[in-house]
Amino acid sequence: MSPRTARTVRRRAAGVAFLLVPAVLVWVSVSVYDKDFSDDATVTVRTGPVGNEMHDNADVKLRGVVIGQV
């Protein structure tokens, strides 16, 4: 392989890398936002009508740490 074609191949590989890396980062950030990488379990809680403060999409906390949502 001549030096000119080697340089062309390196530049094309760098161009592909410069396109792929941001695309992968965007895909990972969207997947994390959509919670595609987290396992979830459905839990049913039955409470009385008095003092029921569980609103839709409210955070569920255990010792101050968010562990889920309603």
Rg over alpha carbons: 24 Å
Strands, count: 2
Helix and strand pattern: HEE
What low-confidence regions span 5 or more consecutive residues with pLDDT below 50?
A: none
Largest β-sheet summary: 2 strands, antiparallel
How do the strands and helices of this protein lay out in sequence?
Layout: H1 3-33, E1 59-62, E2 65-69
Antiparallel strand pairs: 1-2
Describe this structure in words.
- By secondary structure, the protein is of the alpha+beta class.
- The protein has one domain.
- Helix content is 44%, strand content 13%.
- A two-stranded antiparallel ribbon has the order 1-2.
- The N and C termini lie far apart (62 Å).
- The model has no long low-confidence stretch (mean pLDDT 86).
Condensed summary:
Helices cover 44% and strands 13% of the residues.
What descriptors fit this protein?
rod-shaped, alpha+beta, two-stranded antiparallel sheet, about 70 residues, 1 helix
